[in-house]
Design goal:
The protein has 367 residues and is α/β, with parallel strands linked by helices. It has helices spanning 10-22, 35-51, 99-108, 115-124, 131-136, 153-159, 171-181, 189-204, 210-216, 232-245, 247-255, 260-280, 299-308, 332-335, 353-366; strands at residues 2-3, 26-31, 55-59, 80-85, 94-96, 141-142, 222-223, 282-286, 289-293, 314-318, 322-327, 340-341, 345-349. Helix 2 runs parallel beside helix 3 (99-108), helix 6 (153-159) crosses helix 7 (171-181) and helix 8 packs antiparallel against helix 9. It starts with a strand and ends with a helix.
């Protein structure tokens, strides 16, 4: 839903955002570091281009300054309008909470947003693409296998953050895993089903029961033979990685101007340390939440811990500078203080150790 605080009707909200953009001299877009939010920010920048309004996009890990400046570093220009995506600001003129509404707005003003990247943004944020997006993306079909973004299965499995398995983060280990399966160079449907079964068994072998549901989301993907990435699920994986590690690439994907090679390099660079953090995490179980002590906390690490190591429906990953919360049945953005993000994944910045302790206690009390 897109809102400005004046209407709870979705279509009214989209019209309000359109009115803010069309009446602005300059638009600042501030987005949370999630796959769907950065795509939405890119779509909004495209809307600004279409109506001839200059814009600036910034991706943040804490709410924008109450001063109204998108980056908190200086006062906002009096003639600038501020639109937020996945975060709140007291002085914001409008906010968009989902990529679907940015897609609808883009179509309303006459641009041609990519429905595949929009669908991937929705999947990245844990929601099913809406009907109008699915209808516009007629090119995809479900097929057996694993949802990776590349045709190179070894690279795809090693760098996927949709699963956490024995080979995760290690391309040589992924290659050895594939060699044992003896798949043909061009896998047919039967070979892809065998691969999916083997990945599922590996990812759930020493994991809690919730891992079975998590790995299911990576199987039988929606193939996009003419898209930038091989599958919608793999695309979503890439979006979540670059949203945190290289958000400019995510915005560029929403704008349709991204460099595929650079995007995939950023995805790969994000995967290995994320899986290493999951393996090294020190876990403390509490009622409703597992608190994980990790070197670097990101939404990816929190989600992987929630899906493949935790025995509670939420994981709070606490690092030296950030804390990230991943949930299954609670609003992560509402529970994690000072956060930006979505209902299922949110992140906040930390000060000293006492700040981290306060965040942990707040989250424990809110779940």
């Amino acid at each position: 839903m897109a809102t400005t605080g004046r209407s709870s009707n979705d279509s009214d909200g989209v019209r309000d955002v359109a009115g803010v953009v069309s009446g602005a001299e300059f638009v600042r877009v501030t987005a949370a570091p999630t796959g769907g939010c950065v795509v939405a920010a890119g779509l909004l920048a495209g809307v600004c281009d279409e109506v001839g309004v200059p814009s600036q996009v910034r991706v943040v890990s804490e709410p924008p300054s109450h001063s109204g400046a998108a980056d908190g570093s200086q006062a906002a220009t009096p003639t600038a309008s501020h639109v937020t995506v996945g975060c709140e600001a007291v002085a914001a003129d409008a906010s968009v909470t989902g990529v679907a509404d940015a897609f609808a707005l883009a179509r309303e003003v006459g641009t041609h947003p990519d429905p595949v990247v929009t669908a991937a943004g929705a999947v990245a944020d844990g929601v099913e693409p809406p009907a109008d997006v699915r209808a516009a993306a007629e090119a995809w079909t479900r097929r057996p296998g694993v949802g990776v973004p590349t045709a190179d299965l070894a690279a795809g499995l090693a760098h996927s953050t949709l699963v956490h398995a024995s080979f995760s983060g290690d391309e040589q280990a992924a290659g050895a895993f594939l060699a044992e399966l003896g798949l043909p160079p061009e896998p047919d449907a039967a070979a892809r089903r065998r691969l999916a079964s083997a990945v599922a068994l590996d990812a759930t072998a020493d994991a809690p029961p919730c891992a079975a549901d998590a790995v299911h989301d990576a199987l039988r993907p929606r193939a996009t033979p003419d898209g930038m990435m091989a599958t919608v699920e793999g695309y979503a994986d890439v979006l979540n990685a670059v949203a945190w590690a290289a958000p400019g690439h995510g915005v560029a994907l929403g704008l349709g101007v991204a460099d595929r090679t650079a995007v995939l390099a950023a995805w790969q660079a994000h995967a290995a340390p994320s899986h290493a953090a999951v393996r090294a995490a020190s876990l403390a179980r509490h009622r409703g939440v597992v608190v994980a002590d990790v070197p670097t906390a990101s939404p990816t690490v929190a989600r992987l811990l929630r899906d493949y190591r935790a025995t509670e429906p939420a994981v709070l990953a606490v690092g030296t500078e950030t804390a990230a919360l991943a949930t299954t049945d609670a609003d992560a953005h509402a529970v994690l203080p000072g956060s930006v993000g979505t209902r299922r994944r949110a992140v906040t910045t930390l000060g000293d150790s006492s700040d981290a302790d306060a965040v942990i206690e707040t989250v424990r009390g809110g779940l």
